[in-house]
């Protein structure tokens, strides 16, 4: 498992800062930049889970893990959150069920993580984070294994749960 930005299609590098960049036309070269006040550049962080769900692409947030990040360098404040020059994950706090969209606390609620595509029908499949109810209803994924996978993830990044 790896952490990935919910705003950009980038994997967070473990134990390295994430830096704001522009991509060249051919997408093979990344130029590190300082976010400007009126630009869209920078690493996005939302003020709250509610702000994240309200502002990220409605088709991509289900099945995701959410948490807190450290931000530094040039930081621009916005109504819904921030854009920063540098960032690194601090902790993972919640998951969003990929079926019912329930927000689940990783500290207090049971969950499952299913990374293979599970098919309900020819036109609908799901993979990712599951709340206890949806896991019991559709999959029966071993929650102990899911907990171990999450522990591997937080060790890989040197972060916390909660």
Describe this structure in words.
Mean pLDDT is 81; it is low at 116-126. With 162 residues, the chain is α+β, with helices and mostly antiparallel strands. 19% of the residues lie in helices and 40% in strands. The longest helix has 15 residues, at 143-157. It has one domain. The strands form 3 sheets. Strands 1, 4, 5, 6, 7 and 10 form a 6-stranded mixed β-sheet that branches. A two-stranded antiparallel ribbon has the order 2-3. Strand 8 (111-121) and strand 9 (124-131) form a beta hairpin. It is built from 3 helices and 10 strands, in the order ββββαβββββααβ. The radius of gyration is 17 Å and the shape is elongated. It starts with 17 loop residues before the first strand and ends with a strand.
Number of helices: 3
Radius of gyration: 17 Å
Question: What proportion strand?
Answer: 35-45%
Could you say which overall geometry the principal axes of the C-alpha atoms support? elongated
Uncertain runs:
116-126
Approximately how much helix is present in the residues?
10-25%
> For the residues shown, what is the average pLDDT?
81
Number of domains: 1
Describe the largest sheet.
Answer: 6 strands, mixed
Going by helix content, strand content and strand pairing, the class is alpha+beta
SSE sequence, one letter per element: EEEEHEEEEEHHE
Q: Give the termini separation.
A: 18 Å
DSSP, total strands: 10
